[in-house]
């Protein structure tokens, strides 16, 4: 049985027309309907200083959702660790896990957007080291008996105990995004669940899962397919015109992510993101290869190809956050994977 | 008509026996019942590293409560500003204000507990300056049109815009605790609402309100009694034995706050808290002077004395977080002030 989640990064594109309050309220309703329709999880981005209303206080927002929902798992994809005070972050994460009764999936990353590093005045070169430092802190906090201290290049904590304790033991699952073979093996070797991104066709996804699986098994552990999630753009399109419009939406999204990743001059190195602007034809080719595009029957076939490669957990990302698409997907696509 | 809120610092004293999960769930139910009983607000503390389960991620917890409640105002008393990244704090505060539809009361402080400064490795001498720095940042964030930068001794932000925007304009009311005439005047002169603490008898409360009122009026503004809240310990006691037990509970609380404020050797200066251990007789004298102690009729008289001094907003703090006390107070005391 394949599981389906939502990847929530897109909704706030509507922010230019709507008020923040309306965006948030609509999005809460959207998640509540997704839960009723049988979605297993929602994963939300964290972004800062964008100027178009992307969710910033993601753990706060998920904690609100914890009260509004009962079964759906609540995830970050990803929370950008280097922005946060490790102790406050660990407390907030545990509080969410506790109030959601163990429904928190803690996706973490090191950040990639130039404007965020610039805004926080944190050098991009420190991202990796800050990220590892905080992961070390969190694991210490969640596995130490009693008080502990932590001193690093970035943070000092003396004789602390982190409360509350999370419900999931020893801590909520940690998920990391990875694409290259090395980073996939790193995830497996270090006890992280794996988030595969929306770029890469079915062969790439199958290869990623296979690398992860082999690395897990090499440790003598049993591979659990629920520990690998893959995000796919969802572009339901019943006609050629709708398909063209859908490609158009995704092309705008890709250009937008790229421009947010780069410095204004475009020459600052970014963290693991494409540096070269793609042509529209290249973007369309990638969309046709990677996205869940087409009418429901085609989307089912695309999902079957992913499933054949070992994927059992897909997070769909609908750039328009359309209720209609959500319902169509739940009613016409999901039943084909229900048994 | 007098307004009543809850000051929620006490509940987690039960933490030594109960699980974190049970403590949080019970406390959510307690607040929900308080809303039904007509309480106007709940103000929660923020504390770290205590080892007995005090709420740490207070804004997260209030954001959860925002989803579980409809009318009750949600406050911090106080959020300790120096622990937080100013940008993340401002985002979290606005997210709570937005999701609660403008019900956030933002009480802020500089901290006073030795163990927290020690744990965060932040020198106590920096508390005041850090606090003012962050308040400056927040006001800038909530009143600037467009992007702004902020560079200080402690934080650097370049070209940022803080999203989402709060519902209350220009921002949620800022409340500060103050006791001395100078700090009360400072609050009035700088646009803060006033939180008077649980120490000080009716004359002291009346004097504090009068100082605040005169300072507000000296600016040509109209004094609004809803901008002054005073916390009182609530100790419902119908018999002499219950009264003695209630004094005992408060004495333990006072000793506990004092020991948490001080360094292990007791010789480190604390921020504005008593340095000398009080005898039990001195504690009982203060409790009889300051607390809402006694049977409901006596508590009504004590509140009338406060009201005569100009107080129209009382936050009650029940160290036992007893549902029975909550109901007795709502049904037998509050109606006397309902007209």
What does this structure look like?
The structure is a homodimer of 339-residue chains. The first copy, chain A, has helices spanning 20-36, 58-68, 86-99, 114-120, 127-143, 181-189, 202-218, 240-261, 280-290, 296-308, 323-333, and strands at 3-8, 41-44, 73-80, 104-109, 148-151, 156-160, 174-177, 193-196, 228-236, 292-294, 313-317. The first copy, chain A, has 339 residues and is an alpha/beta fold. Chain A has a single domain (3-337), classed as Alpha-Beta Barrel (TIM Barrel). In chain A, the strands form two sheets. In chain A, strands 1-2-3-4-7-8-9-11 form an eight-stranded parallel beta barrel, surrounded by seven helices. Chain A has a two-stranded antiparallel sheet with strand order 5-6. In chain A, helix 2 runs parallel beside helix 3 (86-99), helix 6 (181-189) packs parallel to helix 7 and helix 10 (296-308) crosses helix 11 (323-333). At the A-B interface, helix 1, helix 2, helix 3, helix 4 and strand 6 of A face helix 1, helix 2, helix 3, helix 4 and strand 6 of B.
Fold topology:
The structure is a homodimer.
Chain A: E1 3-8, H1 20-36, E2 41-44, H2 58-68, E3 73-80, H3 86-99, E4 104-109, H4 114-120, H5 127-143, E5 148-151, E6 156-160, E7 174-177, H6 181-189, E8 193-196, H7 202-218, E9 228-236, H8 240-261, H9 280-290, E10 292-294, H10 296-308, E11 313-317, H11 323-333
Parallel strand pairs in A: 1-2, 1-11, 2-3, 3-4, 4-7, 7-8, 8-9, 9-10, 9-11
Antiparallel strand pairs in A: 5-6
Helix pairs in contact in A: 2-3, 6-7, 7-10, 8-9, 10-11
């Amino acid at each position: 049985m394949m599981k389906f989640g939502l990847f929530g990064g897109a909704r706030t594109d509507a922010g230019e027309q709507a008020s923040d309050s309306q965006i948030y309220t609509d999005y809460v309703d959207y998640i509540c309907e997704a839960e009723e329709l049988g979605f297993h999880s929602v994963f939300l981005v964290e972004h800062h200083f964008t100027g178009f209303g992307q969710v910033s206080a993601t753990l706060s927002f998920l904690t609100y959702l914890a009260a509004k929902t009962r079964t759906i798992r609540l995830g970050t994809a990803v929370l950008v660790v280097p922005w946060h005070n490790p102790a406050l972050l660990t407390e907030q994460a545990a509080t969410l896990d506790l109030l959601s009764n163990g429904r928190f999936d803690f996706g973490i990353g090191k950040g990639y957007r130039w404007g965020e590093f610039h805004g926080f005045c944190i050098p991009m070169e420190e991202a990796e080291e800050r990220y590892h430092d905080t992961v070390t802190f969190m694991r210490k906090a969640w596995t130490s008996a009693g008080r502990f201290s932590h001193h690093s290049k970035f943070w000092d904590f003396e004789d602390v105990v982190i409360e509350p304790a999370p419900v999931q033991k020893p801590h909520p699952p940690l998920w990391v995004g990875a694409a290259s073979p090395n980073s996939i093996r790193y995830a497996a070797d270090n006890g992280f669940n794996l988030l595969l991104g929306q770029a890469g066709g079915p062969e790439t996804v199958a290869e990623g899962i296979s690398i992860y699986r082999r690395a897990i098994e090499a440790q003598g552990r049993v591979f659990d397919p629920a520990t690998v999630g893959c995000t796919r753009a969802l572009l339901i399109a019943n006609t050629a015109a709708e398909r063209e419009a859908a490609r158009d939406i995704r092309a705008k999204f890709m250009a937008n992510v790229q421009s947010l990743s780069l410095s204004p001059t475009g020459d600052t190195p970014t963290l693991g993101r494409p540096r070269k602007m793609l042509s529209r034809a290249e973007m369309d080719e990638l969309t046709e290869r990677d996205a869940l595009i087409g009418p429901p029957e085609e989307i089912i076939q695309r999902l079957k190809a992913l499933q054949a490669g070992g994927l059992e957990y897909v997070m769909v990302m609908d750039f328009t956050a359309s209720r209609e698409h959500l319902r169509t997907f739940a009613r016409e696509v999901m039943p084909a994977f229900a048994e």
